[in-house]
Design a protein that fits this description.
36% of the residues lie in helices and 27% in strands. It has an eleven-stranded mixed beta sheet, with helices on both faces. The protein has a five-stranded mixed beta sheet with strand order 16-15-17-18-19, with helices on both faces. The chain has a three-stranded antiparallel beta sheet with strand order 4-6-5. The longest helix has 26 residues. The structure holds one RNA strand of 77 nucleotides.
RNA sequence: CGGCGUGUGGCUCAGCUUGGUAGAGCGCUACGUUCGGGACGUAGAGGCCGCAGGUUCGAAUCCUGUCACGCCGACCA
């Protein structure tokens, strides 16, 4: 018995977080590895999370006036070359198609690592007049980046995402859209994924290749490392000039459009795992749980038990995502498995409950068990799911706040990162040399310059010169 | 791209040093007994030992090459 449990057990997150993550991803059956490095099978349990993310994020997009489109996955090399900073940023990690069948191609095609260039090429032909603006398009697709170091969900060579690409008449409108979408992301992370985020701007060193400004939502994982969870870029008219995307304005002069792009990816699934998971496995926020209530019948071969379980499922399934675990495993096994898979609520129903007209429900996030009268079931389950969703966000926020520190000078800064992992808030002079030195000395990077600025001191934590911004620093995934 | 490590039934691994033709536990299938925190019995199925060369009467084991995967660093959703 002890042996069996050891075989099935996962690594403890306190002892080996990386192994714990891999174990959860595999044992909760979110993915499988494949014969291509860095490319994974996203299994039903993993894909269901992505579908729930898609549905709820896309609904928010629609409210924000976004329309969905689909562009090709191939980019001719000449097109990729048009914007200089952009190519330099992505060239090292693109995959190339060199042959069509047996014939070498006249021009090789890159598999999109991101679609700015394709959208630009399209907009160049599609936009003629101010009446054609704004364009607020998005596509759900996969992209390929030939990463050297890969990890399921966090960094795979092919990953699923959405990429929004917009074109506007004015710089101001583009900037507003950039911030609007960042706010959509932040709200989505907190309200749906129960992950609190820091909103802010990337430093020039960390910004997107070809962008004027990059904004980000940064989350803190349970091990204290930071994860960039969504980005929104303002391109100004840089791409428009490179691709000659012009429109005739009301005054009958040709003007360049101003563009934005913004994206979120399957990396969010990694964030859910690393923010909420525990040593029993995955813990899913109710809003992205494909099974919200798992009913475990006890002594299911006794007359009427399974029927009662199905009856309760049928009562609940109009309002919640429910399943009955009617496999012939023992209840203990089913409990452990439901925990590994992260189902928010487990319900136990057996002969004793049926006699008493009640059932037992157990919260995945806290382990708390309570008895519920069957005639109040719908109401109680609904309340509990809301409570779980809300408290998961609160706990994640408390964890983040408890792992956010402040440094006022270099010694303090080094001491914190020598002892702890988390966000460190510190003042910065704006000079990239300081970012470089900080990275070299303690292998942390600037995560963002938060919108919510605080004045911690007058001088840069690194060089002592006058400070311009407060920056969040951290070890990043 | 550098460093380290690993490739043997679905999974975790033993066997390799000292060559003799493949094992364990778990899982899987069937039947029976079980069932409120990872049950048990009985009977079964399942392996080109990552791949390619070489040495040898004989290679999972020795040699050479190669591929893949994992972890840690440098670069990135």
């Amino acid at each position: 018995m002890a042996d069996k449990k050891m075989v099935e057990a996962i690594a403890s997150m306190e002892e080996d977080f990386a192994q714990w993550y891999t174990d959860v991803v595999k044992k909760a059956e979110l993915i499988d590895y494949t014969s291509v490095k860095g490319c994974m099978v996203i299994k039903p349990a993993g894909y269901a999370i992505w579908e729930l993310i898609q549905q709820q994020l896309d609904a928010r997009f629609k409210e924000a006036g976004v329309q969905n489109v689909y562009l090709p996955m191939f980019i001719p090399e000449s097109l990729l070359q048009k914007e200089k900073d952009h190519v330099e940023g992505f060239a090292p990690e693109v995959a190339w198609v060199t042959h069509g069948g047996l014939q070498p191609l006249q021009e090789r095609l890159c598999v999109r690592p991101t679609s700015e260039t394709l959208f630009c090429d399209f907009y160049k032909n599609d936009i003629h007049s101010y009446r054609d603006l704004p364009k607020v398009y998005n596509q759900w697709c996969s992209v390929v980046r030939w990463e050297k170091e890969t990890r399921p969900f966090l960094r795979s060579r092919e990953f699923l995402w959405q990429e929004g690409h917009t074109a506007h008449a004015t710089a101001q409108e583009a900037q507003e859209r950039t911030i609007q979408m960042l706010n959509v992301y932040a709200d989505f992370c907190e309200q749906v994924l129960a992950i609190p985020v820091i909103k802010g701007q990337k430093t020039d060193k960390e910004k997107f290749a070809g962008a004027v400004a990059t904004y980000t939502v940064e989350a803190l994982m349970h091990d204290g490392k930071a994860l960039q969870s969504g980005t929104s870029h303002n391109f100004g008219d840089g791409f428009a000039r490179a691709f000659e995307i012009q429109y005739a304005d009301r005054d009958n002069t040709l003007k360049y459009v101003h563009q934005t792009s913004w994206g979120m990816s399957t990396r969010l699934i990694g964030a859910i795992i690393m923010v909420h998971g525990d040593n029993e496995g995955l813990v899913l926020p109710p809003k992205v749980a494909s099974v919200q209530v798992c009913i475990v019948p006890i002594q299911q071969k006794k007359e009427g038990v399974l029927e009662k379980a199905y009856e309760l499922r049928d009562r609940l399934k109009g309002s919640f995502r429910v399943k009955v675990d009617d496999t012939d495993k023992t209840p203990g096994f089913k409990f452990a498995e439901a925990e590994m898979r992260g189902y928010p609520i487990r319900m136990e129903i057996g002969p004793k409950d049926m006699e008493a007209g009640k059932c037992v429900i157990c919260r995945r996030d806290t382990g708390e068990k309570l008895e519920v009268a069957l005639d109040q079931l719908e109401e109680k389950v609904g309340e509990l799911l809301e409570t779980i969703q809300k408290e998961m966000l609160e706990r994640a926020r408390a964890h983040r706040d408890a792992h956010t520190y402040e440094a006022r000078n270099f010694d303090e800064f080094q001491k914190i990162f020598a002892e702890k992992t988390g966000f460190v808030k510190a003042m910065w002079c704006g000079d990239q040399a300081c970012e470089d030195l900080i990275k070299e000395k303690m292998s942390v990077t600037s995560r963002c310059m938060p919108f919510a600025q605080e004045h911690l001191s007058d001088t840069c934590v690194c060089c002592g010169k006058p400070a311009k911004k407060m920056v969040y620093w951290g070890k990043a995934y």
